[in-house]
Structures are given as structure tokens and as C-alpha cells.
């Protein structure tokens, strides 16, 4: 649990820290990545976590949601990629692609026809990465970080169900 909490806080702060106040960032980190919140997420049967290692060191993780665990009502035929978190020193090592491929494999096993995610509109590197993998914008929503409302783009990728 401590490793999950630590990697969540470090990766989130790395991505969003410079664009937010310390108070907003701290409030969000303390709420979203508290031990009780992470325990709740880990025990939700409609959520799954997958960890990725580089040279036997925890480098990041993937969190996916289905059904009522999804953060938006996208339907029963979709799987949400809620988090792809990679520590800064392990970015651009192909780990994000491995985690997206893991999400696609899970979706196919669950007979889902699409995967979706929310990405901050100012995270241009992540948007370009997802677009390169075939994701397209299908909407947006407001993500509140502390007291700061921010816009996330909702990106989706349609997938084929293997063996059907």
C-alpha cells in the first residue's frame, strides 16, 4: 500500500504540480491517495491494478475500471483506463505502451468493444501519445483539483474482441 501511495503522489505531482497551487495539489494528493481511498479502490471488484517494473524496480502502474467503477457513465461495453502512472525517470522507456496493451488485453477478455480515458487538456505529450495509439476525442469533462476546475479530454479507442 505504501508503494502504491508513494508512486501515485510522485507521478501526479510530476505531471500537475507546476500548473497548480501547492494548496490545491496538497489537498488533492491527501484525498485521492490516502490509504483509505487506495484500499477502497484496491478492493473494488470492478477495478484492477497492474504494476510495471524496470530492472526489478517499480516504475509505474495501470488502473482500469469497468461497470460502476468507471468515473464517467460510458456504458457496459467500455473499459476505463483511469491511471497510467509512470515515474519520471522511467518515461519514454515503452512502459506506457505496455500498459495500454495490457488494458486492451483486459478489455478483450471482458468482451469490451472500447477503452477510454480522461487526459488533462494541457498534457500535450500524453494526448499525442494516445492519439498515436488510435485514441480519438469523444468528449470532455471537468476535473476538480483542490479548488481548481480543469478540463479533461475524453479519448476513446474502439477495439476488436478476439475470438468473436
Automatic annotation (TrEMBL):
A molecular-function term among this protein's GO annotations: acyltransferase activity, transferring groups other than amino-acyl groups
Q: Gene3D superfamilies this protein is in?
A: 3.40.630.30
| A UniProt-annotated Pfam family | Acetyltransf_1
Q: What is this protein called?
A: Protease synthase and sporulation negative regulatory protein PAI 1
Q: Look up keyword Hydrolase and say if it applies.
A: yes
Q: Which UniProt keywords apply?
A: Acyltransferase, Hydrolase, Protease, Transferase
Gene Ontology terms describing biological process: proteolysis
Q: Where is the N-acetyltransferase domain?
A: 1-160
Q: Has the keyword Transferase been applied to this entry?
A: yes
Q: Give the domain of life.
A: Bacteria
Amino acid at each position: 500500500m505504501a508503494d502504491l501511495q508513494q508512486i501515485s503522489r510522485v507521478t501526479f505531482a510530476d505531471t500537475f504540480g507546476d500548473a497548480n497551487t501547492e494548496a490545491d495539489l496538497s489537498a488533492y494528493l491527501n484525498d485521492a491517495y490516502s490509504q483509505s481511498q487506495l484500499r477502497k479502490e484496491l478492493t473494488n471488484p470492478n477495478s484492477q491494478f497492474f504494476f510495471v517494473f524496470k530492472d526489478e524496480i517499480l516504475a509505474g502502474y495501470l488502473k482500469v475500471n469497468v461497470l460502476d467503477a468507471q468515473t464517467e457513465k460510458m456504458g457496459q461495453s467500455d473499459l476505463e483506463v483511469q491511471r497510467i502512472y509512470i515515474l519520471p525517470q522511467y518515461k519514454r522507456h515503452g512502459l506506457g505502451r505496455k500498459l495500454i496493451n495490457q488494458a486492451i488485453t483486459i478489455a478483450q477478455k471482458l468482451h469490451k468493444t472500447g477503452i477510454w480515458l480522461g487526459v488533462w487538456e494541457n498534457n500535450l505529450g500524453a494526448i499525442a501519445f494516445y492519439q498515436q495509439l488510435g485514441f480519438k476525442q469523444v468528449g470532455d469533462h471537468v476535473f476538480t483539483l483542490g479548488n481548481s476546475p480543469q478540463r479533461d479530454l475524453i479519448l476513446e479507442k474502439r477495439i476488436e474482441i478476439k475470438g468473436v
